[in-house]
Amino acid sequence: MNAPYDGDRGQGAGGAGASGGPPVPPPGPGQAPPPDPYLQDAYDRDPYRAQDLTAQDPVAEALYDRAAHPPPPPGTYQQPHPLYQQPAAAQYPPDPRLWAQTPPPEPDGPSRHLPYGDRPASTQFVGVDDLVSQASRNDEQPDAFAHLFRDQEGPSGPAPVSQEPEPAPAPPPAKSGGRASGILKSSALMAAGTLVSRLTGFVRSLVITAALGAALLGDSFTIAYTLPTMIYILTVGGGLNSVFVPQLVRSMKDDEDGGEAYANRLLTLVMVTLGVIVGIAVLAAPWLIHMMSPTIAQDAAADSVAVTFARYCLPTIFFMGVHVVMGQILNARGKFGAMMWTPVLNNIVMIFTFGMFIWVYGTSAESKMGVQTIPPEGVRLLGIGTLLGLVVQALAMIPYLREAGFRFRPRFDWRGHGLGKTVRLAKWTVLFVLANQAGVIVVTQLATSAGKLSGKDGTGFLAYSNAQLIWGMPQAIITVSVMAALLPRISRAAHDNDPGAVRDDISQGLRNSAVAIVPVAFSFLALGLPMCTLLYASAGTEAARSMGFILMAFGLGLIPYSVQYVVLRGFYAYEDTRTPFYNTVIVAAVNAAVSALCYVVLPARWAVVGMAAAYGLAYAVGVGVAWRRLRNRLGGDLDGAHVVRTYARLCLAAVPAAVLGGGGGFAVLAGLGDGALGSLAALIFGGAVLLGVFFVAAKRMRIEEINGMVGMVRGRLGR
Asked: Using one digit for the tens of pLDDT, what is the confidence trace for 520-571?
């Protein structure tokens, strides 16, 4: 309230009340007036000195004692705003002339987009360019307990700090990079190494197809080359990656010697186990080839070539396991680059080996080489080169281990150190791998049989593998990158028992990846033919066209394949490995059953094309099962309406784009032919039409994720 009215305290308008002091009773004779302890400090603090006096109550203003309380000097209080003044403009106003707005920066504290208060730079989706460009940043992390200190400061605020300049701190050591900087550098190394490894692996498949063709000879080598990987995953690989590695990291944290003894025991155990497996596999090579493809085993020439290739390739099982264990030892010690970059050496060695084969014998289209005409020297060259690639990949890890301070000393004291318990923990992972590989074996047998029955190049297992390699690259680059940024948040939310946050992050991962996955899937459907005729022209026009049709059949299956990957991350965040196993059993069973149906019903020429379509159909069934289980796990809500609406609108935008882009590409092929020049022109023209129509349609539909992506790109470009 305002100052009290002094007139009714016995002094009148011109009495003591007007002089500014409190009302004093008349003193007695010879006595000084005693001070009133309740009123002597009543007017020391004026609460209205910094206030707007014109905004007070008019009655109180009339009774206000201005002589005792003069108004404040000008400039000491804020000028009032007019009653109908327009509000201040927002800091980041939307521009109605622009369709895709540049998003404003995220707030510093927790928000609905960042429920855990994470820094936006560490949680939003970034690409390899961000990881590389921000690798050297070392931002100061906010103190999580700063609010406790502020609560203890009281209303008066912190104590005044002296304005004297503090001495400059000593410069940090050259090697101190901070936790965030180390993570960014490691992520950049791993992302770049994975990208380069996949690109060189793609070049490797091109050279293999050019050297051996896409007929029975190419199928024989492909089966022999994939056999070691399959055996390794079935026996050691699955448990090694999922169970032994966490135990290795735990021992390095808890053991007194930094886990060096455990690492030596593990490496010794893996080497002995893989050595025994290699010996058995080399002796059983004919039986393994017969298991993988009875069609090849029944052909004497093809069986001889495949068994010879297998006996050169099977020892790579040993070097695969050694490479993985060495890489995980380095990862536990903070060295992440070697494991991602050394596979590039394997690809380079194989590219050089098959390049030498082409230099000596020519391409498959030129030499017309088959299983009956390939010389033993050529088989020996390719076998030794394939084995040498894995040897170089494994041995390249040794200098990095020495630099990290690890010295390998064989240890055979395996009992009583937790290795047996670790083996028992791997059962669900091993069953998961068995279910997955069972479906692969069925498809391999059917594809090789269909390729031989058709009598045409590009209709067997090699064509299936090459088309699947192209088809899977967007998933490995786009979806895996998106989930790599979101998976720590999903795991943290699951650990905090926050199903709402898990649901939101899963929904965000699905929608963000769909922006690129959906148009790419329709691009494979519309332009798969010119893609393969351009990339695999060295294998012959007929084989390249056959692989193009297989890639087109794979195309739309990329959408459920990507969705399945994202949904399964939700189970892994809850440390649930049993549900992914059951889901994989369903996918493998559907894939094998529909592939067998295609083999029986379709002509041999189109059987593998049907198998490619069956692969996507199997994952669509798997998505339905996994989605329902994860929705129940999260309390019945998985943001399904929002996700389905986004995918439906993206597909509606992609359908006319695929029709026009594919039509333009086929028109160019018809005019220029399906040679290298015609395929390149068709791919460029059709791709430009497809992307342009898709972008315009998505713009008209106001798809939120497209707007966000365009805004991010424009923000990066500074526009």
From this structure: 999 999 999 999 999 888 777 888 899 999 999 999 999 999 999 888 888 8
Give the pair of three-digit tokens for residue 304.
């001889």
The token duo for 388 is: 């040498």
Cα torsion 681, 683, 688, 693: sign = positive
**Could you write out the DSSP letters of every residue in 211-257?**
HH-SSHHHHHHHHHHHHHHHHHIIIIIHHIIIIIHHHHHHHHHHSTT
User: Which stretches of 555-577 are DSSP H helices?
Assistant: 558-573
Contacts of 341 (CB under 8 A, 6+ apart): 189, 193, 196, 197
Is pLDDT larger for residue 190 or for residue 488?
A: 488
543 sits in which H/E element: helix 541-554
| Cα–Cα distance for residue pair 236/267, rounded to 1 Å | 12
* Cα separation, 317 vs 247, whole angstroms: 22
Cα angle 624, 625, 628; round to 5: 85
Tell me the per-residue pLDDT of 168-177, one tens digit each, with 9 for 90 and over: 444 444 444 4
Among the listed residues 535, 630, 699, 697, the one whose alpha carbon sits nearest the alpha carbon of residue 205: 535
The C-alpha atoms of residue 125 and residue 716 are separated, in whole angstroms, by 13
Query: C-alpha angle 152/158/162, rounded to 5°?
Result: 145
Give the model confidence (pLDDT) of 104-141 as tens digits: 665 555 544 444 444 444 444 444 444 444 444 444 44
pTM of the model as a whole: 0.65
Give the 3-state secondary structure of residue 608: helix
By C-alpha distance, which of 530, 557, 546 is closest to 661? 530
